[in-house]
Specification:
There is one protein chain. By secondary structure, the chain is of the alpha/beta class. It has two domains: 270 residues, Aldehyde Dehydrogenase, Chain A, domain 1 (3-Layer(aba) Sandwich); 183 residues, Aldehyde Dehydrogenase, Chain A, domain 2 (3-Layer(aba) Sandwich). It is built from 15 helices and 22 strands. Helix 2 packs antiparallel against helix 4 and helix 7 packs parallel to helix 8. The structure holds NADP nicotinamide-adenine-dinucleotide phosphate.
């Protein structure tokens, strides 16, 4: 297994085999120094992408028929291999991304645990959503046929990783784990900002594929330019769905390509969110310093490069609000910038902030200090009022990094107008004192917000996304391309499935999941009642 990158040059791993790309090479840049680092990676051409999609299509018939137990075993094997290579993966990711070791250690643990969680989901197989309506030949006025429904995998999935999570939203991240758990082979387009990290993780998954005796095309890792290879992948007829995390421009370009295909396919893109925080008046006057520090920590963590980083802070007008803004300013002034992921992301961040400076009605409130490395701009906070915020389109656009706009509001009605006027978001956060709050307003405000976001929080911070059964990391456009799903948590598997009903099939023709004897012991909805395998067995 490739656990260290000792060669001078590496290639895409198509069906587990290195395939030398014919479209030039790329090399990682250490964003802390702006120097090239590590080996070179060859980039495949548009034509070469077909090798990966064909391998995935060939693997699909066998892979989709794996028993729940076998699929779970494969995902656990991939987790074991990634964990075993953890030290080298973290060392490589630190150089390629500038992210600090503790953050990457946490991210590696999250990635491994996520694979194990999806192994459990695959093994339990309740995601299959089995529904059975036995035949009722005597039913009047018409007999009911025997109907059995189960969800089946869509087919090969193209996955695009994000720059900001080189592990948990990358090669073995949530999109890959959920697609593989669903029974879909994955062709992963490596992010060129962390090619070495991608190679190590891709080799670990490929090794697990081989050891479990699965068809090699179950997983491929390809290096290439997004506008060439990424577009070719999404246009390829063998690809049946897309998972993406990254920019709004990249996500919407892929949505357009997918929609223009002769057979359009779903794109699950997580793109852009500025995660408003609403400080209600009842939250102020208790421990404003801790509240201000909590906000600045959430804003500046990972250099503000988290999809859930708070880019908007709503604070009431008046003396209590003024005092809170002063505390935020003090905490922010003491904060230093840290290395951003790429020189390009850093310059977008700096340009975004420069554009704010030219806007009428927007003023700088506070600025921290720049970090000591390259690409580490100072965190900054600006302020405006609700009318300016709602009438200035640029203020609703994501600036990826530690920059926040404090919007001062004067009434509950203004908050209602904000909640109905903002674009779709991953999260919205309320700070309030439940004992003193006007709960009639707060309830109505939550109802406004739930139409705009995937997750509503109270008295917490949106950064730090728990991975589990109940999490939603999604939201209406432009937070994602399809707000009916989540990219974090076990429900993510639903994105890569579709229901099929079998009507009056003889028992011998039925798939295992919907047979009367329930050989996979799955939870199912039987004639209108959910039934648990153990209860059925006891009966
Ligand atoms: P990105 O530029 O969208 O790139 C993500 C992946 O998509 C890369 O592999 C990229 O390939 C590919 N890609 C980009 N444009 C494409 C296109 N038109 N057609 C096909 N493939 C395309 O995202 P990023 O590099 O991670 O970060 C850039 C910006 O995205 C950030 O400044 C930030 O604004 C935003 N971002 C947002 C989030 C979030 O969760 N909200 C997370 C990360 C980034 P190439 O690199 O080869 O083009």
């Amino acid at each position: 297994m490739t656990t260290t990158l000792t060669e001078k040059m590496y290639h895409s791993l198509i069906g587990g085999k290195p395939v030398e790309g014919t479209s030039g090479t790329t090399q990682a840049i250490n964003p802390a120094t702006n120097e090239a680092t590590g080996p070179e990676f060859t980039l495949i051409s548009e034509d070469q992408t077909q090798q990966a999609t064909l391998a995935a299509a060939e693997a699909f018939p066998t892979y989709r028929r794996l028993t729940p137990k076998a699929r779970a075993q494969f995902l656990n094997a991939a987790a074991d291999k990634i964990q075993a290579a953890g030290e080298q993966i973290i060392a490589t990711a630190m150089t390629e991304t500038g992210l600090p070791e503790p953050r990457l250690q946490g991210e590696l643990a999250r990635t491994v645990n996520q694979l194990r969680l999806f192994a459990k989901v695959a093994g339990q197989a309740d995601y299959l959503g089995v529904r059975i309506e036995p035949a009722m030949p005597e039913r009047k006025p018409l007999p009911r046929p025997d109907l059995r429904q189960v969800k089946i995998p869509l087919g090969p999935v193209a996955v695009f990783g994000a720059s900001n999570f080189p592990l948990a939203f990358s090669v073995a991240g949530g999109d890959t784990a959920s697609a593989l758990a669903a029974g879909c082979p994955v062709v992963f387009k490596a992010h060129n900002a962390h090619p070495g990290t991608s190679q190590l993780v891709g080799a670990a998954i490929s090794e697990a594929v081989a050891e479990e005796g699965l068809p090699a095309g179950v997983f491929s890792l390809v290096y290439g330019r997004g506008t060439v290879v990424g577009q070719a992948l999404v246009a390829d007829p063998h690809i049946k769905a897309v998972g993406f995390t990254g920019s709004r421009g990249g996500g919407t370009a892929l949505m357009a390509t997918a929609a223009a295909r002769p057979q359009p396919i779903p794109v699950y893109a997580e793109m852009s969110s500025i995660n408003p925080i609403f400080v209600l008046a009842t939250a102020l006057g208790k421990d404003d310093e801790a509240l201000a520090e909590g906000f600045v920590t959430s804003l500046t963590g990972s250099a503000g490069q988290l999809c859930t980083a708070p880019g908007l802070l709503f604070v009431p007008e008046g003396p209590a609000g003024d005092d809170f803004v002063e505390r935020v300013s003090a905490a922010l002034t003491a904060a230093a910038g840290s290395t951003m992921l790429t020189p390009g992301i850093c310059s977008s961040r700096v340009e975004g902030e420069e554009a704010w400076k030219t806007l009428d009605g927007v003023t700088e409130v506070a600025r921290g200090t720049a970090g000591s490395t390259e690409n580490a701009p100072a965190p900054a906070v600006y302020t405006t009022d609700v009318a300016t915020f709602l009438s200035t389109k640029e203020l609703s656009e994501e600036i990826f990094g530690s920059v926040c706009l404090i919007v001062r509001y004067g009434s509950e009605d203004e908050l209602h107008r904000v909640a109905t006027g903002i674009e779709g978001q991953l999260t919205a956060t309320l700070h309030l004192d439940p004992a003193r709050e006007n709960l009639t307003f707060a309830r109505a405000f939550v109802e406004d917000l739930e139409l705009k976001v995937g997750r509503v929080l109270v008295n917490g911070w949106p950064t730090g996304v728990d991975v589990g059964d109940a999490m939603v990391h999604g939201g209406p456009f432009p937070a994602t391309s399809d707000g009916r799903s989540t990219s974090v948590g076990t429900l993510a598997i639903d994105r890569f499935l579709r229901p099929v009903a079998y009507q009056n099939l003889p028992a011998d023709l039925l798939p295992d999941a919907v047979r009367d004897e329930n050989p996979w012991s799955v939870v199912r909805r039987m004639d209108g009642q959910y039934t648990l395998p153990s209860i059925e067995g006891d009966a």
